[in-house]
Specification:
This protein is mainly alpha-helical. The protein folds into 2 domains: about 35 residues, no CATH class; about 45 residues, no CATH class. The protein contains 2 helices and 3 strands; from the N terminus they run H-H-E-E-E. Strand 1 and strand 2 form a beta hairpin. Helix 1 runs antiparallel to helix 2. The longest helix is centred in the N-terminal third of the chain and has 19 residues. It is elongated and about 50 Å long. Bound molecules: zinc ion. The site of zinc ion has 8 residues, from loops.
Length: about 80
């Protein structure tokens, strides 16, 4: 999705900025965080309501009927919907 793509671009801009200022440690930390979001994590599911939340930021990622997508629209975390 476009929102998530923008998130990655933002991360790259951060990395570029910190590299420019010679802050390699921070640049690597931002890179690591961005990459970790691409590893799908299982959402926190509520069986009673069938709703689900992002395991990272807590945003609602599934309504009563269907998932909103394979990514959290708020923080960009990849989501694993397999059972
Ligand atoms: Zn999230």
């Amino acid at each position: 999705m476009e929102d998530d793509y923008m998130g990655d671009i933002e991360a790259l801009e951060f990395i570029n900025k910190f590299l420019y200022h010679g802050n390699l440690t921070f640049a690597l930390a931002v890179a690591k965080k961005a990459l970790e979001k691409q590893i799908p994590k299982k959402p926190i599911a509520h069986k009673e309501t069938n709703r689900a939340e992002c395991p990272i930021c807590g945003a609602t990622v599934r309504g009563i009927k269907k998932p909103f997508g394979n990514w959290c629209s708020k923080c960009g975390q990849a989501l694993d919907w397999s059972e």
